[in-house]
Amino acid sequence: MVYSENKDGETYVLTDTIHHHYRIMRAGWDNLNHYFLRVRIHLHIKPDGKIWIMENRTEDEIAEILVDLGVDKKDIVLALLPEHVRGLSGYGV
């Protein structure tokens, strides 16, 4: 599904409700010779119900937004951090 379009490309919202992956991506042409495809946000809801933030290339703190929406911090995993420092984040592991 195309979410929006402008001269810098298009934004796509991709949802996989079977495997519980949710992505926002940008695609388009930087110039006449360079096509880009970038993941902006990628969330994965694991079978145990934890939300793994796989990618966040936005200005928004997705984890904080989820907490504001009522998700417990222990149910959010910052998968974009190295495994050995996730426990120091205050979020789930």
Give an overview of the whole structure:
The chain starts with a strand and ends in a 7-residue tail after the last helix. It has 93 residues and is mainly β. The chain has helices spanning 62-68, 83-86; strands spanning 2-6, 9-16, 21-31, 34-45, 51-56, 76-77. The chain is built from two helices and six strands; from the N terminus they run E-E-E-E-E-H-E-H. A hairpin with a 4-residue loop joins strand 2 (9-16) and strand 3. Helix content is 12%, strand content 47%. The chain has a six-stranded mixed beta sheet with strand order 1-2-3-4-5-6.
Notable traits:
93 residues, 2 helices, 6-stranded mixed beta sheet, single chain, disordered N terminus, elongated, mainly beta
Largest beta sheet: strand ordering: 1-2-3-4-5-6
Helix content: 10-25%
Give the overall shape, derived from the CA principal axes: elongated
For the biggest sheet, the summary is: 6 strands, mixed
Sketch the topology as an H/E string, one letter per element.
EEEEEHEH
Strand % is: over 45%
Terminal CA distance: 32 Å
Q: Count of helices? A: 2
Uncertain residue ranges = 1-5
